[in-house]
């Protein structure tokens, strides 16, 4: 049996209806090795849970505060997708058009018919780059997008799907950049985060460093074991090219934080993630800010990819940039919930049936996207409804 840890003071506010969520957060510290974390929940746009506890650093000298930010990894994929959907909403991007309409160089190597829709639902066949990239190439937007434009698909686009672990943000972000003239970080900040007052950043400046929690990854590369040589070749390029990806200790460096890598380095508070999802849970508008029409949201959360995933090697379900609830990784009890997990367990999702938004951020990763910590919090939420 794992040792029982001390439970730090749970701070913040919590509607008495959701007292079990506070208890679940405490259990995460007591029983599941939590170091620092926050959870936020909105109902009909109203913040009903805003809790945080623990430590923002490995040696436990910096308490987690109300305004603490942390790297939320793939939670940012949904924010990149939302940015592109804003352009779809405004008629500036057609989901069914070839991506090369907006990014002409992308047509190379058999990609002229790859649509924006395929990019969003992980069907473009571009989860990795074959040619060896220099260390930390992901910090160089032009290098990464040029390499993707020159890449040949790993499978016939549209035929099947595979999670685009690191490339998704560059593919989506480059469409946003070509159409809007702004980087994905600047566009997202101006069109999504700022209007909502959401503390979520792609490419975060040094003035925020004191608020950013250290992520407590080790420095070992992911272990990849597969008896299929072709699939092993793909996985090595997904996770180890560029080679800077193999040292997770880099996530706490200034260079990592400053780069715009929407697939992997969004920094946010749980409150910010819940605030953004609250718009999507409430039909696309909240507090006088409309991001999307309900019809656009419905198209975005319709199942576009499902079944065996060529990269994850297990079943997955996607809409347009959003993970959809599934039995292996349920996002609550309602079948229309959608959102995105991040490495180690960070999570944001919307439940439009309950008009509920949920977010969980932490700095001590769990073993999988969904693990006892975030699952316990989700179960506590739905037990309270």
Would you give an account of this structure?
By secondary structure, the chain is of the alpha+beta class. The protein has a single domain (11-384), classed as DD-peptidase/beta-lactamase superfamily (Beta-lactamase, 3-Layer(aba) Sandwich), CATH 3.40.710. Helices cover 31% and strands 16% of the residues. A seven-stranded antiparallel sheet has the order 1-3-2-14-13-12-11, with helices on both faces. Strands 4-6-5 form a three-stranded antiparallel sheet. The radius of gyration is 20 Å and the shape is globular.
Through-space gap between termini: 32 Å
- What is the CATH topology classification name? Beta-lactamase
Order of helices and strands: EHEEEHHHHHEHHEHEEHEEEEEEH
Mean pLDDT: 94
Helix-strand category: alpha+beta
CATH class: Alpha Beta
Q: What is the strand arrangement across the widest sheet?
A: 1-3-2-14-13-12-11
Helical run tally: 11
The CATH architecture assignment turns out to be 3-Layer(aba) Sandwich
As a percent range, the share of strand residues is: 15-25%
The profile of the biggest β sheet is:
7 strands, antiparallel
Number of strands: 14
CATH superfamily: DD-peptidase/beta-lactamase superfamily
How many individual domains? Answer: 1
Question: Helical percent range?
Answer: 25-40%
Shape: globular
Low-confidence stretches: 219-227
Radius of gyration equals 20 Å
